Amino acid sequence: MTSVIENRLLSLLPPSAISRKGALALSSSFAGIDGLRWWIDCQWNSSLQFELRLLLFLLEEHVYSGDLWRLVMAYQIEFMQGQTLRNSQLPGRALLEVEREFLEDKKNRAQLELSLYSQAIDVLELKLRSHSAKTHPVTQLSAKDRRPPDRLSRFSSVNLVHLKCSEWLSDISATGDTEDDEGCMNLGKEAGPAMVYTTEESASIASKLMKIYKTLPDVSQRPYQLVSTWVEECTEDFYMDDCATERASLQILILRAGDLSNTDAETNFLEAELGLMQSRLRRAQTEVELLSDAIQYLIESSTGKYICCLQQQTNPNPHS
Predict the structure, then answer these.
(1) Looking at residue 204, what DSSP letter applies?
(2) What is the pTM of this model?
C-alpha cells in the first residue's frame, strides 16, 4: 500500500497526461492547488517544471495556496525575463534599466520565498516533534539563525553544513547505495519480507527522481552572469556555497525516499525534508543580500554613466 509520503513524492514526477481537473480548477475564480499543479505541468522547460513541483511539494501543506501561486508566478516570470534579457539588443542605458527591473523582481521573489520557507519550517518542526519514536534530536534553526548572517560568520556555518552533507553522502556510497544495472537504487535491501513491497515501491520512485536530479542545471557555474561584475566576489561565493548545499540537501531527500518501510524511515525522510527547507531558506537569505548589492551597484553605475553622458553633450570638445 502506497504511503502518504510516497503519494507526495509521486507529485514530483512528470504527469502521464495533463489533468482535466486542474484545467477546470484554473478556469474558476478560486484556482487552488489543483489549478496550480495543472499550470506547472503545462510548463515547457523541464528544469523550471521540476523547480516549481519542488516548491509545491515542500510548501503546499504549510502555507496558503494564494501565496504559493504568487511564488510560482514569480519564478515563471523571472525565467521568461531572464531569457528575454539575455537575447536583448537594447542600447547601454536602456539595458541597465531593464536589468535593474529584472534584479528587483528576483529580489522580491527571494524575499517571498524566505517568508514562506520560514513559515513552513515552523510547521514541519512541530510535525517532527510529534514523532515520539525518534530517539535522536532534530537539528533546528532558531529565530536568530534564520536572520541573514553577517559575512564573517558564514565561513564556519557553510563549512559545517557542507561537512554534514558530505559525511552523510559518504556513508551512502560506502554501503553501496548506488544505482543498479536497471537504474534503480539499492536502498532498503536489509528490509524484512513484510517490508519488501513498500521498499521496492519507494526505491522505484527515488530512482526516477534521481534521474531527474541528474539532469538539473549545474550549480558550479557562476550565477547571475548578467550581474557578475556588479557584486563582490565573496558575496557571490557565499551564494554559490548555499546553492551547492541546497543541491546536496535535495540529493539526501531523494536518497531518503528510497526507504519508507517503517515509522523511523519516514521520520528520517521528514528530517531530510526539513534540512532541504533550511538550506533553501539560507540560500534565499544570501540571494537577497546578493541582489541588494547588485541593484545598488547597478544604480551607481547607471547614474555615473548618465552624468558622464550629460557632460559630453554639454561640452563635446573639452580641449578645443
Answers:
(1) H
(2) 0.71
